[in-house]
Amino acid sequence: MQQSRRRILFIGIILLGAIWTLLSADKSGGSTAGLIPAPQKGFLAPDFTLETLDGEAVTLSDLRGQAVLVNFWATWCPPCRAEMPAFQRAYADYEEEGFIIVAVNATTQDNLTDIDAFITEYGLSFPIVLDNDGAVNQLYQVRSLPTSFFVDKEGIISEVVIGGPIAEALIHSRIEALLR
Fold first, then answer.
1. How far is C-alpha 109 from the chain's CA centre?
2. Is residue 7 part of a domain?
3. Of 2, 19, 109, 123, which is the most exposed, with the fewest CB atoms less than 10 Å away?
4. Residue span of the structural domain in which 96 resides
5. DSSP one-letter string for 11-35
6. What span, in angstroms and rounded, lies between the C-alpha atoms of 104 and 116?
7. Per-residue model confidence (pLDDT) at position 4
8. How high is the pLDDT of residue 147?
9. Does residue 138 form part of some domain?
10. What is the C-alpha to C-alpha distance for residues 72 and 129, in angstroms, rounded to an integer?
11. C-alpha span between 87 and 126 (Å, rounded)
């Protein structure tokens, strides 16, 4: 008799725990609603402020309301060089619709004079910002160049692309999805 009471009590505790788990579970699948910054899909893009070669400050959170491509690159990186013309064309095509590219140069691994020449060579008109101490590369956990983060109008990362070059058709489709 004593053993059967223990079994009933044990089963009752298990059932209560299961009921509690089911009732308190986040059924939406997004308990943070994307509001915790993390460098991964579905999370708020970590904020940063970096300067351009001209000393103009660019803050990611100030770009809310626009679709943003945050691209980490360096002048010596062949895939970075290969995808820059496609980025420039996409920027020219979608800038008026609310799209912007913020190209974060891995300045700790690059040379300032090379950056200026690179911008001129490729005719880049979107903001090129300098990560002088590597803090933003660390914040975004960048392990290889190029790495690109597609960020929606609310500041949520919709896709991360590690490596490159990214195909121009893929760039355009991702931008169009962000602008919808």
1. 21
2. no
3. 2
4. 31-179
5. HHHHHHHHHHHHHHS-TTS-TTTT-
6. 13
7. 82
8. 96
9. yes
10. 10
11. 9
Pull the structure tokens for residue 113: 């004079």
The DSSP string of the chain is: -HHHHHHHHHHHHHHHHHHHHHHHS-TTS-TTTT-SB-SSTTSBPPP-EEEETT--EEEGGGGTTSEEEEEEE-TT-HHHHHHHHHHHHHHHHHGGGTEEEEEEE-GGGS-HHHHHHHHHHHT--S-EEE-TTSHHHHHTT--SSSEEEEE-TTSBEEEEEESSPPPHHHHHHHHHHHH-
Tens-digit pLDDT string for the chain (180 aa): 688 888 888 888 888 888 887 777 655 555 455 567 778 999 999 999 999 999 999 999 999 999 999 999 999 999 999 999 999 999 999 999 999 999 999 999 998 889 999 999 999 999 999 999 999 999 999 999 999 999 999 999 999 999 989 999 999 999 999 998
Q: What is the pTM of this model?
A: 0.79
Residue 123 lies in a domain: yes
CATH of the domain at 115: 3.40.30.10
Amino acid at 158: S
CA distance 125 to 101: 9
